[in-house]
Amino acid sequence: METFGEMGEYFLLVTGRTEEEVECSLTTIKTPRNSYLPLIISILFYVILGCAHNREKLLRICRKVQDIKFYYIQSREIKPTSSECPTLPYVMSDVFIPRKEGRLRSLDSFRGILVIAVMIFANFSNGDYLVMEHAPWNGLRISDVILPCFVWVMGVSTAMSFNSKLCKGVSRWILFRRIVTRSLLMIIIGVVINVSLVLNRKDFPSKLRIPGVLQLIGVSFFIASTVHLFFFKRNKDDSEQCWHPVNELLLCKGEYLTMLIILSVHTLIMFFLEVPGCPRGYQGPGGLHMNGKYQNCTGGATGYIDLLVFGENHIFQRPACKSIYNTTVPFDPEGLLATLTSSFLVFIGIQNGRTLLAYLHWKTKLTHWMCWIIVLVAIVCLDNQFYSVDSFYNLVHHC
Known about the structure:
Radius of gyration: 29 Å
Largest sheet: 2 strands, antiparallel
Oligomer: single chain
Number of helices: 13
Low-confidence stretches: 78-100, 236-243, 386-399
Helix content: 55-70%
Distance between the termini: 51 Å
Mean pLDDT: 76
Order of helices and strands: EEHHHHHHHHHHHHH
Number of strands: 2
Strand order of the largest sheet: 1-2
């Protein structure tokens, strides 16, 4: 009896005119994949991570087992002359390695689920589940939020790390050197990964992709962290105020102003840059979009700048929109303009991290976040004409 695997493709050939002559032959066109493998790997990782996190408790249990085993052996070999029990050669210590203070468990858990569970799925071709694939252009799926969430988490961690280092007396210049080193390291690793993907191909290095995910993270981290480092000020009054968001704006006005300028530059380029052969402000996928009217305008100003800076052969050659819109122009989702919006997303994460540090009560934190959610949603609605679904998804895709 034949068995069929998940996500496999098969060809069934039935021949014969009568029931006695019927013959069936089954051919496997696409080998089925084990879609449970990413889940198994993720579960095993979390088991190992849990054991490492609770290593003190595990060591204590192991020592108890050793004590019991040793006591059992000694009780069989040694016959005590009195009612006292034989003395054990050692006593298990109650002193444990102190746990690191200052860790935010919710942030670590979110980062672990995001990086390990979801990214393992992505590395295994998303298990061929449609909901895990990237949206062709307009739309929002699970894979489309992995990188933004990771960038946001990086901002939250940056705020906490900088606050801890500055409280310990580390100079801003030393922190800036660490920012530069970490950013360059991520960019270099990203380029090396791109080189490894095309190293054995005949078109290397003419088809080497220069932008990438790590490059985007590195540049975004450098911009947002540098701005935060040089404009960071500590509030002398640690008491929670009734309308603290206003006080925060005044305290961090330089940081907010700089990031708003960066975001405004991105918006002006997107909507007002003249792209040859394309209407001003076009943000569509090109190709067959709008009946092929703007076939070579994939990404609008975003794609045009990447083509000018990197060249057609050094950006991503197989965008998600190619299979549906039959685009011929390459488009890189981690291009130059994407670093501007990503750095702003890191900045939002930094502000969330500062909220966690500034407020003690969860109700105050939640109220603060709700105020900013209302403001940001209102800005998106006004800027994007909320009644246009295509326009809303388009903005989400680019941001």
